[in-house]
Amino acid sequence: MHSDDTIDPVDARLLLALTGQPRATTIGLAQQTGLSRNTVQTRLANLEQRGALSSFERRIAPEALGYRLKAFVITQVVQSKLAEVSEELAAIPEVVEVFGLSGQSDLLVQVVAIDADDLYRIAGQILASPWVERTNTALVMRDLVDYRLTPLLTRLASQP
């Protein structure tokens, strides 16, 4: 989202209600937020169109699919081939997210794996790209703070 697409306190209240009850109906959200049903529908459609709402996939735990290991593969690539590397990474099913970085490393690649052997295979696939110069894999030992935006939404929703 661009800075001119930031949500306002009313959107934040609506998103907080949706966070608390992800399966709420439009009418239920309207009752909870004090907004009209039409306003809720319009605002939700606008939020989706602007990219403020992520895909449902974020809610699916990889462990439920048998992928019990999570790792980050810090990757250095040939700068002029970033698009090609991105396409190759997107073709690996176990790659769940890729972030472009500033600094010494170029990409932070989040992967999931069934076990250590599977992680070795996946890391090898990433390193096999002719445009990947170096990788360093860090195994996630424990999730300490889950992905969350509720504290930010709460702060924004409380603004006048």
Task: Give me a quick take on this structure.
By secondary structure, the chain is an alpha+beta fold. The protein has helices spanning 9-20, 26-33, 37-49, 82-90, 116-127, 150-157, and strands spanning 69-77, 95-100, 107-113, 132-139.
Question: What does it look like?
Answer:
The protein is an alpha+beta fold and 160 residues long. The chain has helices spanning 9-20, 26-33, 37-49, 82-90, 116-127, 150-157, and strands at residues 69-77, 95-100, 107-113, 132-139. Helix content is 39%, strand content 19%. Helix 1 crosses helix 2 and helix 1 (9-20) packs across helix 6 (150-157). The longest helix is centred in the N-terminal third of the chain and has 13 residues, at 37-49.
Reconstruct the topology from this structure.
Elements: H1 9-20, H2 26-33, H3 37-49, E1 69-77, H4 82-90, E2 95-100, E3 107-113, H5 116-127, E4 132-139, H6 150-157
Antiparallel strand pairs: 1-3, 1-4, 2-3
Helix pairs in contact: 1-2, 1-6, 2-3
Which class do the helix and strand fractions yield? alpha+beta
Largest sheet: 4 strands, antiparallel
The helix count comes to 6
Strand content: 15-25%
Please report the distance between the alpha carbons of the first and last residues: 22 Å
Q: Globular, elongated, flat, extended or rod-shaped: what is the shape?
A: elongated
Overall average residue pLDDT? 92
Read across the widest sheet, the strand sequence of neighbours is 2-3-1-4
Q: Residue ranges: pLDDT <50 for 5 or more in a row?
A: none
What is the alpha-carbon Rg in Å?
20 Å
SSE string: HHHEHEEHEH
Q: Helicity, in percent? A: 25-40%
Total number of strands: 4
